[in-house]
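User: Hi! I have a protein structure encoded as tokens and I'd like to know what sequence might fold into it. I'm fairly new to this, so please keep things simple.
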């Protein structure tokens, strides 16, 4: 059981790196409009596909974890989702007030904040359970 947990975890890390390796260049290419419209659509879809594979591998890694590690991951996702929902509500309300900064809180930045919030939840939950 320990071996399959380690393999599943390594696979999810590998696919996370593949996702990052497709997301960053795609963002750069699309931001600087280096390619035409049809190719830019394909470039925009590639990170979505790699992210989907990463999520599938991550779910598989969760399924072979013991109960405590599963609980840590679940709480990390719940904390991350809650913080993300609060941020989006705040940004929406600030935009209604006419006070917003798309340079700091654009759609692209929200991806980074989501990951940061997940890791905040992960650290809090790991500390709580002593894992």
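Assistant: Happy to help. Inverse folding works backwards from shape to sequence: for each of the 131 positions I chose a residue that suits the local structure. Here it is:
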């Amino acid at each position: 059981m320990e071996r399959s947990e380690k393999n599943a975890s390594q696979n999810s890390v590998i696919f996370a790196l593949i996702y990052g390796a497709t997301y960053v260049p795609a963002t750069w290419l699309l931001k600087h409009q280096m390619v035409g419209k049809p190719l830019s659509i394909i470039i925009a879809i590639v990170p979505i596909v790699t992210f989907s594979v990463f999520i599938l591998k991550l779910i598989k890694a969760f399924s072979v974890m013991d109960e405590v590690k599963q609980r840590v991951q679940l709480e990390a996702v719940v904390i991350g989702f809650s913080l993300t929902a609060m941020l989006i509500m705040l940004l929406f309300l600030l935009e209604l007030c006419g006070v917003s900064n798309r340079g700091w809180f654009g759609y692209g930045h929200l991806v980074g904040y989501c990951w940061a919030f997940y890791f905040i939840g992960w650290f809090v939950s790991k500390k709580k359970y002593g894992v």
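A useful reference point when you look it over: The mean pLDDT is 88. Feel free to ask if any position seems puzzling.
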